[in-house]
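Query structure, 307 tokens:
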């Protein structure tokens, strides 16, 4: 099975992201140094002020964790849009399509960390990630109680101070604090009410992962049902029970999301983009795009250029 090309949508490392999207090229020089691809910490209020235009759908090579101490922050992650407030966290998994608009007023912390930062020098490169919120199917939203929020804020402040003072000269200290933070978030995440573990939930999680990795080769609900060794009806009932959406809607929204990123980041024609997202009929692709985006692919591209 061939997966969607990882180069189809730009995936930025830290330096590439700042170079492409930061209007002030002199800002955050420390984040462009060697090592920032593994980890960096920054105060939200210092970074947001530098973004004068929206960040279009894109991917990053590492995970991001946003925590607010005041104000609000809006971000689109995958097919959903989230707004968080103090004592709430948003996590963007590495490789996940995300975007946001300027204008939010807030304070807090933003952490950016690669899986390699969690493993250390001796960790196996294929070790499973123990944090569900960093998996394909995990929810990016975590709400904290007051006690946990106080701990999270203290650890994030310690990480920010350590990074600003020593950068990555003492990675074991950064790693210890980061792992403590992620385990605390994982406990809060696990305490969030979720559907009981069931066959339907397992099927839904596997379906979400397949959609994220096999969009170009699996084109229909029947294709995904075959990959999961179940009937299309069973897949539809399972996904709808867990998410409230049909698998068809999940698939269509993902196709449109990938297409939006390609319309911004590439010069591919609409027909070529349709092929990249697994739709063989360009006319059907244009109708599908307009159904979910409200405008045609060409109009959407012109809107991006004007902005």
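Result returned for the query:
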């Amino acid at each position: 099975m061939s997966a969607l090309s990882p180069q189809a949508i730009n995936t930025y490392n830290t330096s590439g992201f700042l170079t492409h999207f930061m209007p002030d090229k002199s800002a955050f020089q420390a984040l462009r140094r060697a090592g920032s691809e593994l980890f960096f910490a920054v105060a939200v209020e210092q970074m947001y002020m530098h973004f004068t235009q929206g960040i279009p759908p894109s991917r990053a090579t590492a995970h991001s964790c946003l925590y607010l101490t005041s104000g609000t922050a809006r971000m689109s992650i995958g097919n959903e849009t989230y707004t968080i407030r103090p004592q709430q966290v948003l996590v963007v998994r590495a490789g996940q399509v995300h975007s946001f608009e300027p204008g939010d007023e807030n304070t807090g912390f933003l952490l950016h960390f690669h899986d390699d930062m969690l493993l250390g020098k001796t960790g196996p490169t294929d070790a499973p990630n123990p944090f569900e919120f960093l998996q394909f199917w995990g929810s990016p939203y975590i709400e904290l109680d007051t006690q946990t929020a106080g701990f999270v804020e203290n650890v994030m402040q310690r990480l920010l101070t350590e990074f600003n003072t020593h950068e990555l000269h003492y990675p074991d200290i950064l790693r210890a604090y980061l792992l403590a933070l992620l385990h605390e978030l994982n406990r809060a995440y696990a305490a969030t009410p979720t559907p009981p573990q069931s066959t339907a939930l397992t099927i839904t999680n596997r379906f979400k992962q397949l959609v994220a990795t096999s969009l170009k080769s699996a084109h229909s609900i029947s294709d995904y049902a075959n990959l999961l060794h179940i009937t299309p009806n069973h897949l539809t009932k399972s996904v709808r029970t867990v998410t409230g959406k049909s698998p068809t809607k999940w698939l269509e929204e993902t196709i449109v999301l990938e297409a939006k990123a390609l319309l911004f980041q590439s010069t591919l024609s609409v027909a070529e983009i349709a092929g990249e997202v697994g739709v063989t009929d360009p006319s059907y692709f244009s109708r599908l795009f307009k159904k979910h985006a409200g405008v045609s692919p060409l109009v959407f591209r012109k809107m991006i250029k004007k902005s």
